[in-house]
Amino acid sequence: MKLIVNADDFGYDATSVQSTIECFESGGLSSATIMANMPAFDTAIDYALKNARFSFGVHLNWCEGVPLTHPTGLLDDRGEFLHSQVVRKRALAGRLSVQQIADEARAQIKRVRDAGIMISHVDSHGHIHKFAPFMRALRIVLPEFGIRRVRTSQDIYLRPAWRSPTYWVGPLWRRRIRKAFATTAHLAMPDGRDGNDWIAAMLSRCKGPTLEVGVHPGIQHEWQRSQTEAALELGAALRSSVEHQLITWNDVAV
């Protein structure tokens, strides 16, 4: 099987960027997605420009921080993005403007591209892009930039996820993404607390040829530290494997 290990939130803040860089340098990552509207954007860009052997995409952000445009339907009274749960509910209720979503996506992608990055793919903060109005916006915007790869919806779980809407609605979302864009066969988001044999358990659940493993390196929170350790453990396992191969998003066929 071919695996991508992708760090989300590249550019979120100084500590998460440093942890992501350390994971890259230690062989724990093959890819990262850059946040265009967050404080450590420039540091993330600087590393990406110097390390073209990895793939770098855009971590589209519609639910945290200050936007690059003015999508009124996504903003609170301070002019910042609404919490992701509020955004999800508005998306399900049909209360969001596809045009505003598209304008913000376009601005974020343009900022990354104009910084000199060859954009491999997109995903999103809070996995918001799988909801219908966001998918409609991506179908408008991504062709403008020649981007054809998009993260799928999570389908690999190492612990029961009965309370997760993605667990139940995920098959529909995955079909929509696969119909419009190139993507991996599977997506797992391990949190580093899944037991000593979590890698074998994860791989045993995969039936297709490609798997993306998404992680959030960092040091400020225990869950970030756990995911940093998970990335490093998986990277070490793949380097010694003859059965599985570490690839980048640029290797996903379009």
Strand content: 5-15%
Assign the CATH architecture.
Alpha-Beta Barrel
Count of DSSP-assigned helices:
8
**Integer count of domains:** 1
Quaternary organisation: single chain
Helix content: 40-55%
Structural class: alpha/beta
As for the CATH topology, it is TIM Barrel
Structure description:
With 254 residues, this protein is of the alpha/beta class. Helices cover 40% and strands 14% of the residues. The chain contains eight helices and seven strands; from the N terminus they run E-H-E-H-E-H-H-E-H-H-E-H-E-H-E. Strands 1, 2, 3, 4, 5, 6 and 7 form a seven-stranded parallel sheet that branches. The protein is globular.
Give the topology:
Elements: E1 2-10, H1 14-25, E2 31-34, H2 41-49, E3 55-60, H3 84-92, H4 98-114, E4 119-124, H5 132-145, H6 165-180, E5 186-188, H7 198-204, E6 210-215, H8 222-239, E7 245-246
Helix pairs in contact: 1-8, 4-5
Question: Features of this protein?
Answer:
254 residues, alpha/beta, TIM Barrel, seven-stranded parallel sheet, 8 helices, 7 strands, 14% strand, globular
Give the gist of this structure.
The protein is of the alpha/beta class.
